[in-house]
Amino acid sequence: MVLACVACAGFSRQGPAVATLTIFVEPMTAEFGWSRTALSGAVSLGGVLAALASPFIGPYLDAKGAKAVLSIAILVTGAACMGLALTPSLAIFYVLFCIGRMNFAGPYDLGIYGAIYNWFVARRAFATSIATLAQMLGLVLMPLIAHVAILASGWRGGWLAVGLAVLLVGFVPTWLFMARRPENLGLLPDGGARPGATDPKRPAAIQDTTFNRAQALATPAFWLLAGFTLLVYPVQAGISLHQAPHLIERGLDPTVAATAISTFAAVSAAVSLGLGFWPAPLPLRLALALTGGFLGAAALAMLRIDGVVDGYLSAALFGVGIGGLMTMLPLAWANYFGRASFGAIRGAALTVQVLAQAAGPLLSGVLRDVTGNYDLSLMTFAALALAGALLALFAKPPARPAA
Q1: Residue pair 364/377 in contact by the 8 Å Cβ criterion
Q2: Cα distance between the two ends of the chain
Q3: What is the pTM of this model?
Q4: What distance separates the 2 farthest-apart alpha carbons in the chain?
Q5: Could you tell me if residue 196 is inside a domain?
Q6: pLDDT of 75
Q7: Which of 98-102, 241-245, 268-272 has the largest mean confidence?
């Protein structure tokens, strides 16, 4: 039940995703005359706000649970997306989109993964893959919902449709059925046996690593994972936002551009599901290195787009990287440092992630406005991703903290 609620929340999270916003770039800049840099700045500012808020949200999550965090995030995000349909100016666009983007990068991330890692230990990889699959399905459908609504009633109708989808899918199940921790219901993670239980069919509880935030910050593993995050998340956010405009500038039809975005999301969904069965003997740092490699390959492939096939191929490569990133990096944080203080530890790390996400779209927008195309930004992203792949190889799990 909790996993189903998390899946619904993950689907709704994609309302203010950069891959959804990219569908609105062409019609909104055409109507208002905004530059790509100006539009990208809203993504970046929303990320900065999330970076400021996340270290405070994490401890609240540990104390109160994911229900309140996610319910408020979904409600406010849905209202903000619907409000974007009334956008009269760049300032109002910034206010509304920054609210949605702050929720996307902070409360959504902490609430989704905090709920999963409180309820799962032994089956953590599988549960993470299901949650990522739901988010990728949202990323498949939200751009298509926006595109179809734009064709029917313009970009204002597109934002209205996105906001309604956020509220209908995400809010009701989360508010009604989300529970904080299994211990609050007399249960243990993974359906493990309660203390004193005698049912031989029930599995025993699995011991989890337990770090507090201060202990985690003292480990090389924390900073290596943070460094990997810093290198690859500008690639994730920068390409996601500017993918559709880049494809259109390469001569592809806007409908092809929209379906290419859905293609990368669909590939991400398939990859995330497969990674739920990642063999335990293989280190997670290997998966992170492969993730960085695929992101770098996707950026290089996008430099060579000459037709529809190239567009879909580059989108598929990007999807493999995104599926790995969204599944394996949160899993690494949880497996390395445990669930007891996950919110506080993840909240500290999320500051790095959202600042990196904020930098990517702005960097890509500036370089495009200066050079007239996306080639330089894609070369930069390829270099960052490949550097992240190399760094990930050194991110070994930390030794257990002293009792």
Answers
A1: yes
A2: 34
A3: 0.76
A4: 69
A5: no
A6: 96
A7: 98-102
